[in-house]
Amino acid sequence: MTESEEERFALANDLRLACQRIARRVRFESTSQVAPHQFSVLAHLHHGGAQTPGQLAALDRVSAPSMTRTVNCLEADGLVARVPHPGDGRQVLVELTAAGLAIITRTIASRDTWMAAHLEGLDDDQLSLLRKAADLLLEVSNG
Predict the structure, then answer these.
(1) If we measure between CA atoms, which residue out of 92, 91, 96, 115 comes closest to residue 34?
(2) pLDDT under 70 in the chain at which residues?
(3) Which of 34-51 are b and which e, b meaning 16 or more Cβ less than 10 Å from the residue's Cβ?
(4) Across the chain, which distance is largest between two alpha carbons, in Å?
(5) What's the CA gap between 73 and 63, in Å, rounded?
(6) Which of 53, 104, 125, 137 is the most exposed place for a label (fewest CB within 10 A)?
(7) Of 24, 22, 42, whose CA–CA distance to 100 is shortest?
(8) Which CATH code fits 31-142?
(9) Pairing between β-strand 92-96 and β-strand 80-84 as defined by DSSP bridges
(10) How far is CA 29 from CA 33, 104, 116, in A?
């Protein structure tokens, strides 16, 4: 392995660890009472609107039966509802309820407040660097 490859792998390791630690801390600071896999479904519905269970399964990279169990739990808790698919009578769409939207809104606000508090001591150059890094991380994570 060349020196540049070693540096790239070391950077990959550091980024992975930092992202894991931040994700863990943000989840810990959450006010949400739903499990992380359930929150993920609520977040997909919040950002993408009503979707089929199959679409949700693909987004979370889980099996259809696993997503069905998750949707069943969320529906039983009143956080999502199944509605007829307007274009395909064989399918249903899953949509957020008012209670589901309230959990998403409250949790995002709590997590953003936590993160913003940890950015308070940084100067403008550091904040600019983090903005660029966040953009790159989003690009990498979507690719």
Answers:
(1) 96
(2) 30-31, 143
(3) beeebbbbbbbbeeeebb
(4) 58
(5) 16
(6) 125
(7) 42
(8) 1.10.10.10
(9) antiparallel
(10) 11, 14, 13
Query: For residue 135, what is the enclosing H or E element?
Result: helix 124-142
What's the gap between Cα 49 and its chain centre? 14
Q: Output the pLDDT for position 141.
A: 84
- Domain locations along the chain: 31-142
What was the pLDDT predicted at 31?
A: 66
The first and second tokens of residue 82, run together, are 């199944």
Virtual CA dihedral for 40, 107, 130, 20, nearest 10 degrees? Answer: -50
Tokens linked to 62? 């889980």
Distance CA 114, CA 135 (A): 20
Alpha-carbon distance 143 to 124, whole Å? 29
Per-residue confidence (pLDDT) for residue 101, from 0 to 100: 97
